[in-house]
């Protein structure tokens, strides 16, 4: 199976969310419609988190293999994301990683040894047989 991969640097500002969706749409044009919709939704959440809670610089990596896609968003912050388990119904934010956890076949966070930053990644499997796996966590509950 052939893998297509693309990495794009994004500016550290809110407009990068829209740009990330466009990149995913263009690069993943051959994905099934439901996989594409999920990819656009989740990349929006992860890039929003990078802009709101991460640090410069941001990069987006998209890898398409068959009907599956793996997307990674790298930012310059060492602060690890945590999923909120109880978000008030009246709160407008705080559900992004919970959404990633529910929709993605797999996801996690990779730290970059010897330099600042982390990559939050997720995989959307081809709907014909993708298995959901648990995100990786350390002893403190960090993802």
What's the gist of this structure?
Helix content is 29%, strand content 26%. It has 143 residues and is an alpha+beta fold.
Structural features, described:
The chain has 143 residues and is α+β, with helices and mostly antiparallel strands. It has one domain: 2-Layer Sandwich (Heat Shock Protein 90), CATH 3.30.565.10. Helices cover 29% and strands 26% of the residues. It contains three helices and five strands; from the N terminus they run βααββαββ. The protein has a five-stranded antiparallel beta sheet with strand order 1-2-3-5-4, covered by helices on one side. It is globular and about 35 Å long. It starts with a strand and ends in a 19-residue tail after the last strand. Mean pLDDT is 84; it is low at 128-143.
Present the secondary structure layout.
Layout: E1 3-10, H1 15-27, H2 33-53, E2 58-65, E3 68-75, H3 96-103, E4 106-111, E5 118-124
Antiparallel strand pairs: 1-2, 2-3, 3-5, 4-5
Helix pairs in contact: 1-2, 2-3
Taking the sheet with the most strands, its summary is: 5 strands, antiparallel
Which class best fits the helix and strand makeup? Answer: alpha+beta
* Sheet with the most strands: spatial strand order: 1-2-3-5-4
How many structural domains does the protein architecture include? 1
Helix-strand string: EHHEEHEE
* CATH fold-level assignment: Heat Shock Protein 90
Which CATH class is shown?
Alpha Beta
Overall mean confidence score, pLDDT = 84
The residue ranges in which pLDDT falls below 50 over 5 or more consecutive positions are 128-143
């Amino acid at each position: 199976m052939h893998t297509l991969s693309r990495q794009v640097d994004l500016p550290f500002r809110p407009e990068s969310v829209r740009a990330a969706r466009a990149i995913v749409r263009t690069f993943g044009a051959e994905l099934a419609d439901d996989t594409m919709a999920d990819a656009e939704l989740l990349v929006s959440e992860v890039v929003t988190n990078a802009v709101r809670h991460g640090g410069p610089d941001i990069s987006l990596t998209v890898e398409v293999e068959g009907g599956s896609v793996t997307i990674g968003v790298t930012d310059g912050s060492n602060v690890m994301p945590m999923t909120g388990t109880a978000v008030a119904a009246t709160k407008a934010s705080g559900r992004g990683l919970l959404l990633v956890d529910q929709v993605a076949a797999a996801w996690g966070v990779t730290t970059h040894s010897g330099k600042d930053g982390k990559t939050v990644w997720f995989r959307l499997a081809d709907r014909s047989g993708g298995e959901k796996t648990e995100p990786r966590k350390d002893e403190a509950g960090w993802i």
